[in-house]
Amino acid sequence: MSEFRKGTVGAVVFLLTLVGVEIYFFYSFLTHGLLVKYGYSVNILYYNLSYLLVFLFLLTIVSVVIAAIVYGFVKRRSWTRKFSLFFLIWAMLWPMWGILVWNYVIEQVILLVVYALLILYLLSSFAREYFRNIFRYGKYTLYRREVVLKSGKKLTIYFFSEHKPKSGVPCAMPEGYTVGINPRSNMPYLEKYYPGVYKYGRYTLYKKRVTLESGKTLTIYFFSDHKPKSGTPTGMPDGYVVGINPRSKMPYLKKKRGFRRSSSEKVVIESSDKAADSRNNRSEKNMGEKNRKPSNVIYVVNKPQPGHVRGDWAVRSHGKIFSHHRTKQAAIKEARKIAKEREATVMVQNTDGTFGMGFKPRAKKR
Length: 366
Description:
Blueprint: H1 3-31, H2 34-37, H3 42-47, H4 49-75, H5 80-100, H6 105-123, H7 125-132, E1 136-137, E2 140-148, E3 154-161, E4 169-170, E5 177-181, E6 188-192, E7 199-200, E8 203-211, E9 217-224, E10 232-233, E11 240-244, E12 251-255, H8 263-271, H9 273-291, E13 297-301, E14 313-316, E15 321-325, H10 328-342, E16 345-349, E17 355-359
Parallel strand pairs: 13-16
Antiparallel strand pairs: 1-2, 2-3, 2-4, 5-6, 7-8, 8-9, 8-10, 11-12, 13-14, 14-15, 16-17
């Protein structure tokens, strides 16, 4: 039997014993216990309204206390152990009182022994593990579940739930993880903890290595407020600062002023005639790029420009919005149709703000 099942069985036995003992105690208290010992009875309580109100008040308090203990055990609240210990110590005073006044001594001794056993259970390692080995985040509890993949490999998954799920057991926070919040559903989830990760507000800095068509490998940095499909959290690279996009209000990295201009570059520019020629060539090239028309690309984006009719997805080029669509699939279909007519490429926006290839025209047969 697992530790979790042992703790659960022990908690159920504790609650059943506690509720049963309290029911029997009140039965004996009203029929032949301390109430009768001091000359009172149920009939006297009915005739004396003040005694009846006090008795009902005490009964209500005890009922609320037992209900709180049951609730705490079911929800596995950490305060329940201390609260239950305090209640049991208070409850032990009644059988001790019965023994002192010599009223049904054997019965009072049995009650005293049962209360002592319940206290020993609360002080045991099983009860401590039952309440301690659980991670909670607000109203959510962390669960784990083992799943078997098609390859036969077993995988342990962790998830948060507000209610008890159909499968899975409550568990502690695994090492090397921290809690993240999904911005759409506001649900917590586990993500790997990377020391030294740079955060800007609710955004985390990620890095990803991409391979260009030329075969060159490039490392790109981007911010995201949720876990992207690819990329790992990272720290701030040297020579960069955070900038804010005025349209999307998203942070991005930009090089510090003067970071490119090292002392060696200044020497080369000032001492070489070829450097001056290359500088003029670069300026002419930049002027040509400014005058050149934008590349033949059709974009599928989910954030149209302000002032237009907003849809969930928009099909646009560099200077024109063609249509708006409520679904991503409909927007991609329309974009491919336009791209075939113009022999253009379709780029689709991902959830992390980057773009992926959606369609590329085939080369014409010669």
